[in-house]
Amino acid sequence: MKYNHSILLLIFISSLLFQSCAKVTLTDNSSDETYHLSFSRHALDYVNLTEGKYFIYKDSVTSLIDSMIATESKLESTFVPKVKLTFDYTTWDETPAHYYEKYSLTLTKFTGNVQTAWFRAGAETIFRKPYTSSDTIEVELNELSPFSNALFKFSETNGPGISIVIEGKTYNDVFIATTDNGVQDTTSQYYTKDIFYWAKGIGLIKWQTFSGANVAKNYVLLRNN
C-alpha cells in the first residue's frame, strides 16, 4: 500500500506531540527583530592580537627565554535562531534571534621543532534580558581549562590604564588582572595566584605566578613584532 508523503509527515509530528507536552522550537524569525551582540572594541584592543605576531619572554626566576607566536586570534560572529519554549501548547519563555561574538586566543611556545600551547583563553558575549543589541559588552577572557579562571576582565567604561616599565621599556595604558585558586591562607603551599599585565595594542607584557608566598614564575616581555 502506498501512503501520501504529507499524511506520513502528519502522523510523525502527531506522535511527537503526544509523547510530550513540553518542547523547544526553533522558529522562523523573518518578521521579528534580530539582535546583534558585540564586544567593546575599547576592551578588545588589549587582547585581540594579530595571528602570526611573535613575543619573546624571559622568566626572571629561571632566566629562561621562550619564544611565543599567536597561532590563534579569532573573532567570530555566530547566528542563533529564535528559540521558543512551550509547555502544554503555551509559550512561557522565548529567546529572540541574535548574533553573538566569540573570541579565542592561543599563544604557542616553540622549542626547536616542538610546539606547546603556552596560553589558551576565550570569551563570548552573553545574551540576557532585557534583550537589546549592544556593541559595548565587557570582554571576560577565561582560561580554557576545567577551572575557567578569568585572565582579563575589561568593560567599555574602564578608564586609561597605568604606565609601567619592563626591561627598560615604558608601556602605557596597562591593565592588571589578578586571579587565584580561592585558598585564603596566602602562605599555604596550596595557595596560587596569577597576575596578568595587558598593554593596549600589544597584549600580554608580564605574567607572574605565585605559589604560597613565593614567586614561581615571572614572565616579562623582552620584545615583540
Task: Explain the overall architecture.
This protein has two helices and 16 strands. The chain is elongated and about 65 Å long. A hairpin with a 6-residue loop joins strand 10 and strand 11. It is mainly beta and 225 residues long. Helix content is 8%, strand content 58%.
Major β-sheet annotation: 13 strands, mixed
Quantity of strands, as a count: 16
The helical percent reads under 10%
How much strand content do the residues show?
Answer: over 45%
Approximate shape: elongated
Radius of gyration: 24 Å
Mean pLDDT: 85
- Give the N-terminus to C-terminus distance in angstroms: 73 Å
Secondary structure category: mainly beta
Low-confidence stretches: 1-22
The sequence of SSEs as H and E is HEEHEEEEEEEEEEEEEE
Multimeric status of the protein? single chain
How many helices? The count is: 2
List the helices and strands and how they pair.
Blueprint: H1 5-19, E1 22-27, E2 35-39, H2 41-44, E3 54-59, E4 64-80, E5 82-87, E6 90-95, E7 98-111, E8 114-124, E9 134-137, E10 139-143, E11 150-154, E12 162-166, E13 169-180, E14 192-199, E15 203-211, E16 214-224
Gist?
The protein is mostly beta strands and 225 residues long. It contains 2 helices and 16 strands.
